[in-house]
## 1
Amino acid sequence: MDLMQDKTHEHRPPRPAQSPAQSPAQAIAKGTGTGKGKIEDISQIVRQLCDLLTRENAALKRHRHNEIQAMTERKEQLSRLYQGHMNNIHRDPSQLKSLDPAKRNAMAQSAMRLGDLMQENASLLKANIESINMFFKAITNAVRDQQEKKAAAYTSDGAMNAYGLTRRNLAVSFNQTM
């Protein structure tokens, strides 16, 4: 699916009620808006995050890094909105308690699905990072081996191509952060 098409059909969550001087994130942080509106907002945000994570996880499995990169900004926006709403719910859990049981159950199911997708996403991201690190380490080692074979060095005995001397003088390295 074309990402540009996908973005045009993407539904954005309604902005919380706010004063003209507030950004949407500030309104969420302050808890403005009605309880019912907040619950509808968070439900929509959870649905959008689930859809986005489903697409991102599929792209990670197919190693489509351009698709993943194109989703990053939207993922960050939705994550900030979700976190803001969750902070408000933790401060005032009565919003959820006032829901009828069917809606509360639907929200719980959505939250569990989001949690599963987030775990899968974290696992796929870690696997991709590890595979990239292994790839670069293999390249670095191959280049280092080639340079060691070609490098001319002398030992104190006058022998050529001493491994101990050439290894120290190579300028090839790989920054492994794990």
## 2
Amino acid sequence: MKLILQKWILFAQSDLDAAKRLFNSPKPTHWTYLLVLWHCHQTIEKALKMIIIKKKKELLKIHDLPRLSSLAEINLSKQQTTLLEELNKFYLRSRYPDLIYKPLSSPNRKIAKELLIHTKKLFLWLKPQ
């Protein structure tokens, strides 16, 4: 079990690393920032799924962060809950034809930086859970 949990943490850490690298791209566009935030979403999604596995609960193939936090049965602060709701907006639903045509947000550098900072903090808080 410990090995599986370590793999999930490394998997999540890789998404956080990707988000940081994209944020520091030499010529970022709003698409770059959208990908930064998608990787932030993935970081937290994987950390929450790691907690669900650790608690020996059924792992559902869902991507909704507030729902995953509920399944993980962790007590989040209002700020952490708000972050999950905000990051949920940046999950790219390209595999779902009925959702692909909904308008995407156009995040800027300031939004991406703020959410990346909060994602790092939440990830560090979730790791030992």
## 3
Amino acid sequence: MSGDQRRVLYVDDDEGLRSLVRRALERRGYAVTLAATGEEGLARLDAEAFDVVALDHYMPGQGGFETLKQIRERPDPPPIVYVTGSDESRVAVSALKAGASDYVVKTVGEEFFDLLESAMLQAFAQVELRRRHAKAEADLVTSNQRLEALLHEVNHRVANSLQLVSAFVQMQASAVEGVARSALKDTQRRIEAIIQVHRRLYSSEDVESVDMQDYLAALVRELQDTLSSAAAPRRLSLAADEVRLETDKAVSVGVIVNELVTNACKYAYRRGEAGEVRIRLARDGQDLLLTVEDDGAGMAEGGQVHGTGLGGRLIKAMASSLNSEVVYDPAHAGVRASLRLPAS
């Protein structure tokens, strides 16, 4: 018997037909093992591996249908071709529903052996197709895992690189005074807003989106630590719904929050006066609504926010990248800025 022969287990209580099937299939290159009952067939399966099982319906003791079910319950069972009588279409349909790969109707003569081989070849093809599909899925899972690992590493390196830039800016800020130092501190906060996004991407299972509740909480803590002092106490409060945004959208929202909160902490309240800045990200129908507000002095004359204007330009650019704009509420006693964007 050659190593590439397909191994067939033929189970049938008809001794004469068993012998005919063996001779016919062996002439066609198959290695055939015979069993006279369902119990004997299961025992053969326990002893050796087969590429296909051909199983008769009517047998003494354990019938074909019960044998079929027991074979299908085994791990990685071989395909099964069910053999029925000519007027047993209902039995054949039940066998197919129970897991048989195909069925063959018993006939007299060579035609039966042709049909049996055709059904077995079809079963082999189905098995090969399933194996290829399983391999493709496994390869895809492996590829995705490698990609995720690479993205984690990329985000880790980006965060580290940005942290290094932030340290350089901090060193430069320490060497200057006045307006220059303030400007460099603002730049450092903008860098930190982006670093926070990449930190979450490399420490999360999801490398394609950012948990905004977690991200904004960390960002607000950073801003609280850097913008509030004994001379100018500021309380930052955050209320954020559970939302995930794509990386680029999360960065844009983070920069906008950084600029609006920084502006409010600097200009909303007089020096020495305590003040609160409230940040809210909430679902509003199909959209998300971001709101940053204070109860301070309000807008400067002409409806413009205080400052050099760089922050305002950054806000406008980031809002534009989100296909939106920041709107200021003229009826609010202090400053209330809001941004609406799609939730997905």
